Amino acid sequence: MKVLIIDDERLARKELINLLQDYSQIEVVGEATNADEAIELVNTLSPDLLFLDIQMPGKTGFEMLEMLDNVPQVIFTTAYDEFALKAFEVNALDYLLKPIQTERLNESINKLTLKSKTVSSDLINSKKLCLEDQVFVKDGDKCWFVSLSNIRLFESDGNYIKVFFDNNRPMIHKSLNALDEKLDPRSFFRASRKHIVNLSWVEGIEPWFNGGLMVKLRGGDKVEVSRRQAAKFKEMMSL
């Protein structure tokens, strides 16, 4: 597991590196002192895991994550317990309080090791986001790390996209066309100008007006597939 440590405090970085030497599955491939350095290293080194400080000069850890197209696993490191708990909701995410305790670090590493997975080389080379990938979603003061397998639907709303997962509907500032180019077409389908659906969530299909289709997703959401996309959709969903 390739690890990148991002913290503006040199002693904090060195302390964490020393602690991580006890884990044979961990390889520290780089250090960054701020968000701009970190973004460059993430794009160059493609780490599996970030140890990320929240408060740094310039951009915060949260702002840095918003600038990444593909977010690795992240463990936040912070000296501010109340700040961390208030700033984000924990989903597929962990945080460590400074000074980092060995027992707490071990718990985090074990948790992330269990979640580690092997992604086929063709998906890596295509740089498309697949169901196993995680994305960082921020809406106001709330943040989530969400597996794409849990996102059932993307819906365009002006210059924003509404992201449907669990009982959440956060809005992100992105175009549906830009998102469509990032997603693996084997797992996500552009149903119309307004919607992208996760094919693994499709529960039922029925004919609709003007040669279109109405798709029902697990959980009850219904999405209309345009006539233009209907034939392609039926081909993808058939044996």
TrEMBL record:
<dbReference type="InterPro" id="IPR007492">
    <property type="entry name" value="LytTR_DNA-bd_dom"/>
</dbReference>
<feature type="domain" description="HTH LytTR-type">
    <location>
        <begin position="137"/>
        <end position="239"/>
    </location>
</feature>
<dbReference type="GO" id="GO:0000156">
    <property type="term" value="F:phosphorelay response regulator activity"/>
</dbReference>
<dbReference type="InterPro" id="IPR001789">
    <property type="entry name" value="Sig_transdc_resp-reg_receiver"/>
</dbReference>
<feature type="modified residue" description="4-aspartylphosphate">
    <location>
        <position position="53"/>
    </location>
</feature>
<dbReference type="Pfam" id="PF04397">
    <property type="entry name" value="LytTR"/>
</dbReference>
<dbReference type="GO" id="GO:0003677">
    <property type="term" value="F:DNA binding"/>
</dbReference>
<dbReference type="InterPro" id="IPR011006">
    <property type="entry name" value="CheY-like_superfamily"/>
</dbReference>
<dbReference type="InterPro" id="IPR046947">
    <property type="entry name" value="LytR-like"/>
</dbReference>
<keyword id="KW-0597">Phosphoprotein</keyword>
<dbReference type="Pfam" id="PF00072">
    <property type="entry name" value="Response_reg"/>
</dbReference>
<feature type="domain" description="Response regulatory">
    <location>
        <begin position="2"/>
        <end position="113"/>
    </location>
</feature>
<protein>
    <submittedName>
        <fullName>Two-component system, regulatory protein</fullName>
    </submittedName>
</protein>
